[in-house]
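User: Sequence in, structure out. Go.
Assistant: Echoing your sequence, followed by the structure tokens.
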Amino acid sequence: MPGTPARTREVGPAVTLVTAAVSIGVPVLIVLFYFEGLIVGKLLQPPIVFVGYVTIVDPAAGTAAAIAIGCGVGATIGQWTLYRGFNDDAPEYLGLRRHVPYLDALPTIVTNRVSERRRAFVDRQFEAHGGVALCLTNAVPGIRGLMTIAAGISGYPVRRFVLASGIGNGLYFVLLLAAAWGVSGAARLVGA
């Protein structure tokens, strides 16, 4: 009716929280995967957050793929940053190692977080298979990203590293999207 004020719907705190999470979720996911690429963010469990986000938000397939690509790029850049920390021949860009606290200590921090047994396994696989191992292990939870250490120490060519890392991250996100869509499908079946 003209002249009648429109009714405003009461929005509860839960709806506001979900709306905020959806609106800032993608940049937060990308940052989480950057830190996961550095290995220091694995405690935050970005894959679980990603699957939960895609399940709850239920974006269209193209949007979900774009989110996965963004997160994959974030993870690849994180791995590249870690690779550079372990590669003594890596050039210094913008003086970051001098200006960002603890960045020069990152290799030591990561080395202390990874068990000797895992490092030995990763080193053997990298020596035997190089870029193929780097690519495939990036798609395997648990050892994902650890090959970055071996690649950096060995001075593996940076372009080949970024390519193998990116392809492996792409495979990983295909698996995460499949898991998210599987959880969504199961939730629809239970709710039906």
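User: And one key feature?
Assistant: Residues 158-191 form the longest helix (34 residues).
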